[in-house]
Amino acid sequence: MTDPITACQLMVDSQLRARGLSDPRVLDAMLRVPRHEFVPESLRAEAYDDHPLPIGDGQTISQPYVVAVMLESLQLTPTDTVLEIGTGSGYVTALLGELAAQVFSIERHPALASNARTVLATLGYANVQVITGDGTLGLPAHAPFDAILVSAAALHIPPALLSQLREAGRMIIPVGPPDSQQLQFIRMHNGQPLISLRDPVRFVPLIPGRD
Ligand code: SAH
């Protein structure tokens, strides 16, 4: 088995740079976060491969390329406060922790949330907080956010999330039914959401309510 550092470097070169991703902050963060720590032991040999992987409870850790596309779109700065919906393994949460000042991440499955909390704490991410709950409601107590990243597909953009985005804030979210989803990028401009359509994707559904 290739050692994780070499595998990670290969992932960044062949799956990200080679496909046109170039934001140095995002690429550096993807080099720093040990993706193999976020996948089940039995799948560690595949941790840096070019596809999503199962993480339990019928959920998946997203493909590295899609993660990088979503992170690049948000143009995060080191002072940003970010909301993530769908913590899953906690892999994207760690990347957000590298790129922003503070991260709140909501996961509806208590077991996944608990596992992600443990891995993130073990790796020393002190600026991220995982909350068990329904992400479609956002997190009014900590709003507004500079950026929102949603890792599960909604049929429509949840209105609560739009209302928690600050002026000039950015959101990236997969929208659509299982067989025809597309990333939508939203920028809040003069209190109105400006929406642009991005890559076609395939995510697990965003399910309203708690598990
Ligand atoms: N970025 C994660 C992707 C996890 S898959 C990773 O790379 O590991 C999407 C996650 O969204 C799943 O864990 C699922 O349980 C969660 N999810 C679905 N609907 C949700 C909701 N309403 N609120 C919070 N989390 C939700």
What does this 3D model show about the protein?
The chain has 211 residues and is an alpha/beta fold. The protein has six helices and nine strands. The protein has helices spanning 4-16, 24-32, 64-74, 91-99, 110-122, 159-163; strands at 53-56, 59-61, 81-85, 102-107, 128-132, 145-150, 165-175, 181-189, 192-201. A seven-stranded mixed beta sheet has the order 5-4-3-6-7-8-9. A two-stranded antiparallel ribbon has the order 1-2. The chain is globular. The mean pLDDT is 96. The protein binds S-adenosyl-L-homocysteine. Residues 55, 59-62, 85-86, 88-89, 91-92, 106-109, 112, 134-136, 151-152, 204, 206-208 line the site of S-adenosyl-L-homocysteine (SAH).
Strand line-up across the major sheet? 5-4-3-6-7-8-9
How large a portion of the residues is in β-strands, by DSSP E?
25-35%
Count of helix runs: 6
Distance from first to last alpha carbon? 37 Å
Residue stretches low in confidence (pLDDT < 50, at least 5 long) are none
